């Protein structure tokens, strides 16, 4: 016997489904709306039969989205009398086990539950988990630092502030903090503070009691209570107005929220905030509360833009390609083309570019010609030869340029140059000999400073 959650606002349909499920020997848990379904879908629920259209703010797709964001979520089947191509595709994209059109007969219910409860049945794809490591792919020092920070703080409760340009993967970091931490079994609730009008944001965050205002026909739990026991991701906190910042400060500080028209409620949540704004600058301008900034930035994590970590470009592009249907590879000239683009949209733009190249490309190998939509290459003066030749030559050219820059910036101090480059002094000495730079010393600092920093051909 298994516990089956049935969520449908139509009492007649709900009772009919409950009778069919009970006749199959299972225990039934019933819910009349989306909020009740989320509250009931706790440990012990083996499967969920979910109506698509339900009253209130949470329809079937939103309930499905939130359930699938939970680790170890049960399989969910959508049942609707209003099936369409768009809602079928969207439901399956969000991880629905199946999508059936009402009316559903007893034989259909038996067959559906048989598949959903089969021990060896493959679980629906967890879209959130599949994205977790997306923007964390990288070998650059900056991304290694981000990865290490996540590993150190994932099991704690300290509030994390993730900063970075749009498209760098701030929500991916938040999901990784949740998935790799001790709260992984709890809910992950994401809320974009910039996408909700200020007059509605308070109810979205803290909820409201039934009858709190005109139109409040049912209680609303709010994001803080929805995330109880898990993680609350507050995206674009830098765009909140000052009045809301004061209310958020109390919730972050006290872990207590007061629903509109209700009483204070304690919440147990791990808060991860994110913004593309320069919050210290906004504090100086008076647009962001200083006390809230320090409450959010207990553990700061900065995601540098993609243009500042070129070493991650090709691995990240290959990662995106690997997740697409078919087996496609990047040609050497395509990799060079990627390195020449500034990527103002960061990882999000790169992912879109890989999807477009894969969709329009004719073969299994993506070449530079498949990336012509990126626009003309306009390299800065003196960098025309950066991408010439084969890959070993290009890497050697880059190494030599970095060695020269480190020596210039440190006044010829080799120990300090090695530290800045993140390598041992012995390796630095070996590289200097390899590129014919071993004669450089502190006495020749001026010569190093005046040497052309543009990459030259690698020594043979």
TrEMBL record:
4-aspartylphosphate modifications at: 51
Sigma-54 factor interaction domain span: 136-359
Presence of keyword Disulfide bond: no
Domain Response regulatory: 3-117
SMART domains: AAA (SM00382), REC (SM00448)
Record keywords: Activator, ATP-binding, Nucleotide-binding, Phosphoprotein, Transcription, Transcription regulation, Two-component regulatory system
CDD domains: AAA (cd00009), REC (cd00156)
Residues in coiled coil: none
Designated name of the protein: Sigma-54-dependent Fis family transcriptional regulator
